[in-house]
Amino acid sequence: MLPSQPLLHAAVLALTVLQALASNTFIAAVYEHAVILPKAAIKPVSPDDALALMNSNMDVLEEAIKEAAQQGAHIIVTPEDGIYGWRFTRETIYPYLEDIPDPAVNWIPCTDPTRFAPAPVQERLSCMARNNSIYVVANIGDKKPCNSSDPSCPKDGRYQYNTDVVFDPEGKLVARYHKYNLFIPETQFNYPKEPEAITFETPFGKFGIFTCFDILFHEPAVVLVSKLQVDTVLFPTAWMNVLPFLTAVEFHSAWAMGMGVNFLAANTHRTSISMTGSGIYAPDGARAYYYNMKTEDGHLLVAELDSHPRLSATFPPAVNWSSYALSVERFSSNDSDFGGLIFHDWFTFTELAKPEGNRTVCQKDLCCHLSYKMSEKREDEVYVLGAFDGLHVVEGQYYLQICTLLKCKTTDLNTCEQPVNKAQTKFEMFSLSGTFGTNYVFPEVLYSGVQLAPGEFQVLSDGRLISKTRPTKPVITVTLFGRWYEKDHLKQNPQLPAFS
Questions:
Q1: CB–CB of 368/401 below 8 Å?
Q2: How far apart are CA 441 and CA 251, in angstroms?
Q3: Which residues pair with 441 in a beta bridge?
Q4: First and final CA of the chain: distance in angstroms?
Q5: What is the DSSP letter of 256?
Q6: Paired strand residues for 338
Q7: Where are the beta strands (DSSP E) in 113-178?
Q8: 407 — alpha (psi -120 to 50), left (phi > 0) or beta?
């Protein structure tokens, strides 16, 4: 006699859990999705039309989830805005929202869809997870009614939240996170009253979740790792790449390394607004990543990660980020320093005029030291060492300390502030350090073509970012990107550094 479907499902789920328990690793997947966008609308569409668009996107996501499960993945992350896109006002997004309950209600929408208000999106996501015995992470919109008894209640009588949800392999809702740090254009959503630090346990470690712009701030991102000690971060994002420091693959991999966690980043894919770049990152580097500005196709990544990276033999040592830099004298004078704006921040630069050498550049309390050797000094390419120590105030306010080895766009030093994605100069070695006032520093190495350099660099315990082997590709930038969270609320100093 054949087993019934519920018994068969329970047996498959039990086997999946046992396999995960028996191993110190797990298989992760992320899907970069080319979102099917709604037509621009002044008035809200009908609920049926909204659901039809969301089902079109979920059709694509479901195929990716099935493929990931067939490749043995235990969890898959899909992007922010991946189910309905982003062309909305507060009014026009309303038909796309569902009331998402607190996971404490112990709900499997797939098997009990009528327990709460109609939630066809949650029901379908739950069934995707259950039918494929895989954790599914998705980003949707939550709506919560309110009234005049709440002085913060919006005039339309509801809160609207940018929300991540996680369904376990049974299809149960196990996590719900309301995005705390909304990006400036997200006027369709409300800010939660307090930041939520959302975690959940799995057979392969403790997981935390946050969304896109959250990564640049202390809450909830740093809290999840430093205080709550998650092993793996789930990161749905709709990330627009900004060279030279904030391309998705570059910064997300650096954050994983700087924070010492696994990091599963799923980006949307739309090259017209520079949206691409997803990855599966470990504390010692990228296990798999995707960056493609040439096509409009989605892409699935699958890779193995340590369940508890802090217990791994490859876990990086603790770093004192300023130890080396404070112990050495200044390498060079500031006679030839000059300034330039990078993403609205005024950097102090010094040119790397020779094929090898030692250079220092300082701004305020930050001094950046570089030792380097180029394979050859090309006449048609110029590199600089740059420093920035100050408050960034465009598209958000956050305090940065940055040391960077950077390629200029042309041989004209006035172009060092312009974005570059191609280079021809290879380096034999580099060693970069800085007198950072923060412990939160993220090491970036970006090669020509916006390619990462996994396994080719390391951070020493004294704070030096060094080439581990001879770099195999031309360098765009080598950067130590520091965040000094305690200074985020300072007033901006309008005075720029003076140069003689």
A1: no
A2: 11
A3: 482
A4: 89
A5: H
A6: 349
A7: 135-145, 158-167, 173-178
A8: beta
Active site residue 80: yes
| Dist CA 148 CA 216 (whole Å) | 34
Q: Is 114 exposed, middle or buried (0-12, 13-18, 19+ CB in 10 A)?
A: exposed
Average pLDDT of the residues in 352-361: 97
Question: Cα torsion at 181, 184, 190, 195 (round to 10°)?
Answer: 10
Q: Report the chain's C-alpha Rg in angstroms.
A: 24
**Is-catalytic flag, 179?**
yes
d(Cα 198, Cα 175) in Å, to the nearest integer? 7
Q: What is the pLDDT of residues 314-343, one digit of tens each?
A: 888 899 999 999 999 988 788 889 999 999
Of 32, 62, 172, 179, the active-site residue reads 179
**How many Å apart are CA 443 and CA 464, to the nearest integer?**
10
42-49 contacts: CB < 8 A, separation 24 or more? 42/92, 43/91, 43/92, 44/91, 44/92, 44/94, 44/95, 45/92, 45/95, 46/95, 47/95, 49/95
Q: For tokens 């350099």, name the residue.
A: 453
Q: What is the pLDDT of residues 149-208, one digit of tens each?
A: 999 999 999 999 999 999 999 999 999 999 999 998 899 999 999 999 999 999 999 999
d(CA 372, CA 354) in angstroms, rounded, equals: 10
CA distance 279 to 290: 6
Whether 212 sits among the annotated catalytic residues: the reply is yes
User: Pick the catalytic residue: 110, 123, 172, 212?
Assistant: 212
Q: Locate 290 and state its tokens.
A: 């995707």
Which residue type is seen at 149? S
